[in-house]
Design goal:
Blueprint (H helix, E strand, L loop, with lengths): L1 H15 L4 E6 L6 H10 L4 E3 L2 E3 L4 E7 L5 H21 L6 H6 L14 H7 L4 H9 L5
Parallel strand pairs: 1-4
Antiparallel strand pairs: 2-3
Helix pairs in contact: 1-2
């Protein structure tokens, strides 16, 4: 989960611009205080994304809550279910299902999968608007 949290933070700054973020996620016992601090620091380190420098993320906090009591996490769980179905279809060799087409912009350009895998093919099938806009914005170094 540690690398995924870092990747998601980077993706949201690509989507929203250079804004401060805060994670609110379902309780996850394997992330202790030290790991939490490491995640908060790791997202601040500049990195290359498609050969361009992403200057890092201003992640202010990482909080874990009971998902049954926080609607934000419940909505995230619903969206995760949509993504799971999209991935399941891709794993079956289906890439142009109506759900995949309509929800494509929700996909993460920064997907953690093998090059050429069904998930990679699904993400690469259509341009992801936020990534195209970031590449054109000049908010990075070539």
């Amino acid at each position: 989960m540690w690398p995924a949290l870092v990747a998601v933070a980077r993706t949201w700054t690509l989507r929203l611009g250079n804004v401060a973020l805060e994670y609110v996620a379902d309780n996850y016992g394997d992330i202790d205080t030290e790991s939490r601090f490491e995640i908060l620091e790791a997202v601040r380190v500049p990195t290359l994304i498609t050969g361009r420098v992403h200057y890092g993320v201003d992640l202010r906090d990482l909080r874990f809550v009971d998902s049954k009591l926080d609607a934000r996490v419940q909505v995230a769980d619903i969206l995760a279910g949509v993504a799971r179905e999209m991935a399941s279809l891709a794993m079956s060799g289906i890439f142009d299902n109506e759900l995949q087409v309509r929800a494509h912009q929700m996909l993460d350009f920064n997907v953690m999968c093998s090059t050429g895998s069904p998930l990679d093919v699904l993400v690469e099938r259509r341009p992801v608007r936020y990534m195209t806009e970031w590449m054109a914005s000049g908010e990075h170094a070539p």
